[in-house]
């Protein structure tokens, strides 16, 4: 019975060596969508700035897809944190509002 459990547990585990880069790419598309939707309350230059901040993230996922694929899903998480901090700073200091 325990052998069967072990086999089932291995099937449920994510294989980030194969799927990590794809999870990272999908996450970057989500961050891009959120960044573009910032145009509802932020000025155009801020939206351009936020979208330009995605460029290093794309480069990082591209490099890590081969060398460190299991780290790729964390890049969009960092991008979401950066987006949140930029939007929070804009709302606090520059008066962005919907």
Report on this model:
By secondary structure, this protein is mostly helical. It has one domain (2-93). It has 5 helices and no strands. It has helices spanning 2-12, 16-37, 44-52, 54-67, 74-93. Helix 2 packs antiparallel against helix 4 (54-67) and helix 2 packs parallel to helix 5. The longest helix is centred in the first third of the chain and has 22 residues, at 16-37. The chain is elongated and about 50 Å long. The N and C termini lie far apart (57 Å). The model has no long low-confidence stretch (mean pLDDT 87).
Summarize the structure.
By secondary structure, the chain is mainly α. It has helices spanning 2-12, 16-37, 44-52, 54-67, 74-93. The mean pLDDT is 87.
The tally of domains stands at 1
Distance between the termini: 57 Å
| Parts with pLDDT < 50 across at least 5 consecutive residues | none
Instruction: Describe the largest sheet.
Output: none
In N-to-C order, the SSE pattern is HHHHH
- In what range is the share of β-strand residues? under 5%
Shape: elongated
Number of DSSP strands? 0
Overall structural class, as computed from helix and strand content, comes to mainly alpha
Mean pLDDT: 87
The number of helices is 5
Radius of gyration: 18 Å
Helix content: over 70%
Write the layout of secondary structure elements.
Blueprint: H1 2-12, H2 16-37, H3 44-52, H4 54-67, H5 74-93
Helix pairs in contact: 2-4, 2-5
Features:
single chain, 98 residues, mainly alpha, elongated
């Amino acid at each position: 019975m325990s052998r069967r459990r072990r086999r089932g547990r291995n099937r449920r585990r994510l294989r980030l060596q194969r799927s990590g880069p794809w999870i990272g790419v999908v996450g970057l598309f989500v961050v891009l969508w959120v960044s573009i939707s910032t145009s509802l309350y932020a000025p155009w230059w801020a939206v351009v700035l936020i979208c330009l901040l995605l460029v290093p993230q794309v480069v990082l996922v591209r490099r890590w897809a081969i060398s460190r694929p299991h780290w790729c899903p964390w890049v969009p998480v960092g991008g979401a944190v950066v987006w949140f901090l930029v939007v929070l700073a804009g709302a606090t200091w520059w008066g962005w509002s919907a």
